[in-house]
């Protein structure tokens, strides 16, 4: 139904050995929205995404995607259900061409026409990838690899994209460009997005609903419109002035 969240975490706890990285994390991502988890370095943002996509098994709690329990399921199974993860640091296949990286994103799909159309769509979002289509992905700049990683996720035609710090290591100009495309992907394709970011200003401007994470716990949540108005969260939780 309309009200059913695409993704729902209930009291999720994940740890690395004795270190509890996230505790009691509950959050919802509603259909068609961009949701964001904000927090400083080490707050646990990456751990949340890895737990959702099955890379880390949680110690406690549950995760539902499109009404189905995906807690601790195999990452390949979770991708097949329509959930794509763009990891921090991009992780493109450096020895494959740009085009083959994109086709790898579409490996579970049978609709060749749809795959061709989506390839055209990502080339229109990021024209540099069309120019570099036959080159090895390892030769791309950091920003271009981020574009490729996002594009590869689109090629899976997912219902939900998890995006880990798309601004990491990018210039302000390139960060702005990437965020503009993220918003277009959401608006034009109707893809629901969960974004984690240290760059609170960019994320709050692009997103509909936000959660503030501190030391592995969600300490605040609200519409991004309202979060943008609260100067204290920017100072105390996000290190912004
Ligand atoms: P970053 O922006 O650095 O990615 P983050 O908010 O994504 O930060 P996480 O990477 O999720 O934070 O890390 C949360 C906590 O878990 C940190 O205290 C971190 O040191 C710890 N941690 C992360 N990965 C590991 C690991 N493989 N082994 C042990 N501890 C880890």
TrEMBL record:
Family the UniProt entry places it in: Belongs to the ABC transporter superfamily.
ABC transporter domain span: 7-240
Record has Cell membrane as a keyword: yes
InterPro entries reported in the protein's UniProt record: AAA+_ATPase, ABC_branched_ATPase_LivF/BraG, ABC_transporter-like_ATP-bd, ABC_transporter-like_CS, BCAA_Transport_ATP-bd_LivF
Record keyword Cytoplasm present: no
Coiled coil: none
The protein's name: ABC transporter ATP-binding protein
Molecular functions per Gene Ontology: ATP binding
A Pfam match: ABC_tran
């Amino acid at each position: 139904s309309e009200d059913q969240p695409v993704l729902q975490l209930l009291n999720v706890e994940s740890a690395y050995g004795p270190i509890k990285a996230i505790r009691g994390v509950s959050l919802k991502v509603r259909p068609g929205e961009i949701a964001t988890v904000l927090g400083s370095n080490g707050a646990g943002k990456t751990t949340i995404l890895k737990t959702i996509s099955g890379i880390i098994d949680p110690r406690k709690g549950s995760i539902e995607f499109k009404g189905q329990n995906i807690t601790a399921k195999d990452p390949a199974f979770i991708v097949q259900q329509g959930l794509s993860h763009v990891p921090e640091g991009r992780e493109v296949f450096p020895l494959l061409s740009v085009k083959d990286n994109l086709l790898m994103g579409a490996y579970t799909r049978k609709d060749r026409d749809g795959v061709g159309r989506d390839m055209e769509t990502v080339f229109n979002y990021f024209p540099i990838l069309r120019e570099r289509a036959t080159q090895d992905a390892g030769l791309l700049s950091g920003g271009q690899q981020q574009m490729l990683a996002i594009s590869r996720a689109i090629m899976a035609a997912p219902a939900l994209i998890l995006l880990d710090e798309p601004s990491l290591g990018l210039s302000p100009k390139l960060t702005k460009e990437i965020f503009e495309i993220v918003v277009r992907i959401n608006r034009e394709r109707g893809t629901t997005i969960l974004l984690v970011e240290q760059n609170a200003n960019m994320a709050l401007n692009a997103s509909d609903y936000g959660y503030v994470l501190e030391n592995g716990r969600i300490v605040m949540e609200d519409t991004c419109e309202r979060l943008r108005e609260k100067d204290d969260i920017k100072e105390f939780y996000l290190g912004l002035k």
